[in-house]
Design goal:
- With 451 residues, this protein is an alpha/beta fold.
- The protein has a single domain, classed as Glycosidases (TIM Barrel, Alpha-Beta Barrel).
- Helices cover 38% and strands 14% of the residues.
- It contains 15 helices and 13 strands.
- An 8-stranded parallel beta barrel has the order 1-2-3-4-5-7-10-11, surrounded by 5 helices. A 3-stranded mixed beta sheet has the order 6-8-9, with helices on one face.
- The longest helix is centred in the middle third of the chain and has 24 residues.
- It comes from Microbacterium azadirachtae.
- It catalyses: Hydrolysis of terminal, non-reducing beta-D-glucosyl residues with release of beta-D-glucose.
C-alpha cells in the first residue's frame, strides 16, 4: 500500500521513505519543568522569563508539560509513534549547577536513556539547547571565550555519565538563533541588543562544538553533528539593493555557521565586523569531521534592503500561506528542497549526510481538548516538507533522517504557550497528553515506510 496521503495530496514515495530514519524532538527547558528540583540552578532562560514583559503571555516554563515527572508517559508516546530516535536536550544547569556535577540531575537523564533503550529507541541528546548558566552570562556569556571552555567541562561530565550507552549526539542547537536573536536583537535570552557586535558569540559557540566533538570521540561516540537553523533566502525583488541585502542575510544566517564547520573558514563579513576572535588552531578544531550535519528548517526568508545600522529586513513572502507565527513564517516546502540542493552544490563532499533535525509548524489550537484534535494544517505542512526531503533525495542530496518538531506542545520561548507545535496536545494546567490527528498520521507514515 502507498503511504497515506494528506487530504487528497499524492502519496509519498515509499521506496524513498525507506531511506530515512524518523525521529521526534524536544528541548529540556521547554518540556521538563521542575525548575527548583534536584539541585538545578538558573539559566539565562529562567532570567528571561522571570523578567516582566519578555514572554508574550506572561507564562513561565514551570511546570509546562512537566516531562521531568512524566518521562515514562512520554517514552511510551514515542514507542507507540514508532520513531527510530528521540532527539532531546540535556539541561546544562541540571547537570552542572554552580559548576559542579549534580548526581540527581544526571540520574534523571540516566533513567531517560535507559527507558529509551528498553523501548528500542536510540537516544540522541543535544548538549546545548540555549540554557546557558546565568553565572556564565554574568561573566560575558558567549561573548567570552572562557564559556566554550566551561562547556567542554560540562561535556566531559555528560560523556562520562552517559557515553557507555549513548553513541549519537548533537552538540550545539541553532547557534544562529543565540547570536542573532539572543545577542543581536534581544528577542531571545539573554535579551541583548548588540547588533553586529554580537557576531563573536557565533565563533565561541562553534568553538564549543569543536571541543565537544573531540571529547565525544574520546568516549566512543559514533554519530556526532551540530544543528544549525537554515533558511532559503529570497530577495524581495531583483533590484541591486535587495539582492545585496539577501546576500548579506545569507552570510550571517547560513554561511557564517556552516562554512567554518564544513570548510574550515569564515565567509568575508567585512565591513560589518572587523575581525572575529579566532585563535590559532580554532578553525581546525571547529572543522573536525562530523558524521551528520543537522538542519533545522521551518520556512524560507524573504529579505529587502533597509536603511540603518542593519541593512536588511525580513518581509512577508508574497503569495505564501503562513503558520500560526504569522506573515514571517511562510509555508513553502519547495524552499527546503532548494536549500538542500544549494548546500550540496556549495559544499560538495565536505557536506556529510544531512539530518533534518527539526521541522514542524504551529497553528492556533485550544488550551484544552476533549479528544484528538484534527490538526489538518499540520498534517499538510508535514506531508509537504517530507515530500520536499524526498525531492532532495531524488536530486542526489544525502539525507539520512527526518525529525518532527515537536513531540509535545511546549513552552515556545518568548511566545510562551501561544504557539503549539506538538503532535501531542498538552493541557498545561493538568499535564494531560492527547495525541492529535498528526500523531496518528505520522505513525501511519512510519509504519508504511517500514513495511
Amino acid at each position: 500500500m502507498p503511504v497515506p496521503p494528506a487530504h487528497g495530496a499524492p502519496p509519498l514515495d515509499r521506496a524513498l521513505l525507506r531511506r530515512l530514519g524518523f525521529s521526534a524532538a524536544t528541548a529540556a527547558f521547554q518540556i521538563e519543568g521542575a525548575r527548583a528540583e534536584d539541585g538545578r540552578s538558573r539559566s539565562i532562560w529562567d532570567d528571561f522569563v522571570d523578567t516582566p514583559g519578555r514572554v508574550r503571555d506572561g507564562s513561565t516554563a514551570d511546570p509546562g508539560p512537566d516531562s521531568y515527572h512524566r518521562v515514562a508517559e512520554d517514552v511510551a508516546l514515542l514507542a507507540h509513534l514508532g520513531v527510530d530516535q528521540y532527539r532531546f536536550s540535556l539541561s546544562w544547569v541540571r547537570v552542572l549547577p554552580e559548576g559542579r556535577p549534580n548526581p540527581q540531575g544526571l540520574a534523571y537523564y540516566d533513567r531517560l536513556v535507559d527507558r529509551l533503550l528498553d523501548a528500542g529507541i536510540t537516544p540522541t541528546p543535544t548538549l546545548y539547547h540555549w540554557d546557558l548558566p546565568s553565572r556564565l552570562e554574568a561573566d560575558g556569556g558567549w561573548l567570552n571565550r572562557a564559556t566554550a571552555e566551561r562547556f567542554a567541562q560540562y561535556v566531559e561530565v555528560v560523556a562520562d555519565a552517559l557515553g557507555d550507552r549513548v553513541r549519537h549526539w548533537y552538540t550545539i542547537n541553532e547557534p544562529v538563533s543565540t547570536t542573532l536573536q539572543g545577542y543581536a536583537i534581544g528577542e531571545l535570552a539573554p535579551g541583548r541588543t548588540l547588533l553586529f557586535d554580537a557576531l563573536p558569540t557565533a565563533h565561541h559557540q562553534l568553538l564549543a562544538h569543536g571541543y565537544a566533538v573531540r571529547i565525544l570521540r574520546g568516549h566512543g561516540a559514533t554519530r556526532i553533528g551540530i544543528v544549525n537553523n537554515h533558511t532559503q533566502v529570497l530577495p524581495a525583488s531583483r533590484s541591486e539593493e535587495d539582492l545585496q541585502a539577501a546576500y548579506l542575510y545569507d552570510l550571517v544566517h547560513n554561511r557564517m555557521f556552516a562554512d567554518p564547520v564544513l570548510l574550515g573558514r569564515y565567509p568575508d563579513l567585512e565591513p560589518y565586523v572587523s575581525a572575529l576572535p579566532v585563535h590559532d588552531g580554532d578553525l581546525a578544531l571547529i572543522s573536525a569531521p562530523c558524521d551528520v550535519y543537522g538542519v533545522n528548517y521551518y520556512n524560507p526568508t524573504t529579505v529587502a534592503a533597509a536603511a540603518g545600522p542593519v541593512p536588511f529586513e525580513v518581509v512577508p513572502t508574497p503569495g505564501a500561506p503562513v503558520t500560526g507565527f504569522g506573515p514571517l513564517w511562510p509555508i513553502v516546502p519547495e524552499a527546503l528542497t532548494a536549500f538542500l540542493v544549494d548546500a550540496k552544490e556549495r559544499y560538495g563532499e565536505a557536506l556529510p549526510p544531512v539530518v533534518i533535525a527539526e521541522n514542524g509548524a504551529s497553528f492556533p489550537e485550544p488550551d484544552q481538548v476533549d479528544g484528538p484534535l484534527d490538526d489538518a494544517d499540520r498534517i499538510d505542512y508535514l506531508r509537504g516538507h517530507i515530500g520536499a526531503v524526498l525531492d532532495a533525495l531524488r536530486a542526489g542530496v544525502r539525507v539520512d533522517a527526518y525529525t518532527v518538531w515537536s513531540l509535545l506542545d511546549n513552552f515556545e520561548w518568548a511566545d510562551g504557550y501561544t504557539q503549539r507545535f506538538g503532535l501531542v496536545h498538552v493541557d498545561m494546567a493538568t499535564g494531560r497528553r492527547t495525541p492529535k490527528a498528526s500523531y496518528a498520521w505520522f505513525r501511519a507514515l512510519i509504519e508504511e515506510a517500514r513495511s
